[in-house]
Design a protein that fits this description.
7-stranded mixed beta sheet, 15% strand, 4-stranded antiparallel beta sheet, alpha/beta
Length: 558
Amino acid sequence: MAAGHERVLRGDRQAQEARRPEDLLHRRPLHGSGQVSGAGAESGAESGEPGKAAGKAPGKNILFLMTDQHRTDTLGAYGNPLARTPVLDELAATGTRFDRWYTPTAICTPARASLLTGQAPFRHKLLANHERNVGYLEDLAEDQFAFSRALRERGYNCGLFGKWHTGTRRTAADFGFDGPDLPGWHNPVDHPDYLAYLAEHDLPPYEISDRVRGTLPNGGPGNLLAARLHQPVEATFEYYLATRAIEQLERYAADSGERGQPFFLALHFFGPHLPYILPDEYFDLVDPAGVELPRSVSETFEGKPPVQRNYSAHWTFDTMPIETTRKLIAVYWGYVALIDAQIGRVMAAMERLGLVDDTAVFFTCDHGEFTGAHRLHDKGPAMYEDIYRTPGLLRVPGAPPGQVRDEFVSLLDCTATILELAGADPEPAVDSRSLLPLVRGETVDWEQDIVCEFHGHHFPYPQRMLREDRYKLVVNPDSVNELYDLHTDPDELQNVYAHPERAGVRGRMMRRLYDVLRERGDNFYHWMTSMYDVGEVGHDPTLSGLDESTYRDGAAQA
């Protein structure tokens, strides 16, 4: 092995290691037997003629493209002049771009569970990633609704290639998805199917150098943020995932043509989540000298929750030169360009297979990334736009192209949209609302704000956020609350929560957040009842059941 290089095989979780290599591949027979792996078998949708199960007419084909930890400002369609994203920009030009698309929570597992279920994290209760779990549930309930099961019942082929990360014990196959079992947060470069792909194509193994990392407060090496990959593009995990997805697309296209069976195919890239590990042509694609640093790199954390300063130290921002930050951002943009190119291969296959006019295409991610904004990397207990506002593109055949919508929408809303496209009942996706009226260009009565939540990552840290057109309120029960005026301070540098002149805004938004949480059944509102001025209440907030009349009488007199 060349000097300075190292072959690194990042292991899967213990839960994966306990399985035999042959158990890691869940490939349902696509023809003949009609057997369904996992939960899809329960519906019986594969018996008889696919697409006509129980007399149900097939819906539209659906291609769902998803990245991990993806900033909105990396795409040309969202205004980045240095972006190398022609494929996603074309999807925006031929479909609908949503400018206020938010994640329900900026953490992988709960966000992905919300997509699967159409339910907010507080409701499905899968609240943290396995890797940093400090006592939360690690799998969805056995009887949990999932859109994939509903699609199976409608006779759909369902496939998921790439990152699962929606539970520990139960895999994508348990929810009726075809594809290799790829859990976890990083590219699992020791996975047997990836190794078989490399061997089949005579491609070199994973090997990296030029690591970028800072120094932790305890003096140890910081988290790996980026590295140079010594493989050709064809050997990257991104290229491998796109190849496997295209192979499945070809099989599904055959089913669609021969038997009228529609499909849902998800391609979930592990990037551009850090560490940004790229081959030369993408590691050096963007000149760092042309990178404009985020203005919030001047963050002082004055008047902010102290956890933010601690997180900055954990991510070692101040131990690296500012030139390194520029390079990290440049490499991050290069990672997005690599993924865009692989999506281009999938879109070309769609064209070649004659599927474009019959297939709805989604593009989004689970949450954003700081890349130096607020002197932070990754994500965490800070509800800034950098990690909560995300890209969202949707193209539906027959809908007007080139639309830009500014309604507050969510990753959660994909679930009801998928169900409606498939002709399935969207009602079980109780926190989701179909985006199809917006995509069709209709004038729709829509909420003027959005609520997001967080429950912790390295440690429990509950937060709730209300975002409206001008202001954002963040409630931190064990710390300083935050209020930002996004018209005058779009970089969220000045917390104006305690400013006397903002008392009216603060009170109005606190009550609005309280009412939304109580209506949803999010018990976070109980803390707010006693700790903040939420106005008169018409219920007994003590839950004692012994003094209800006091609150009824008080409400009547108010």
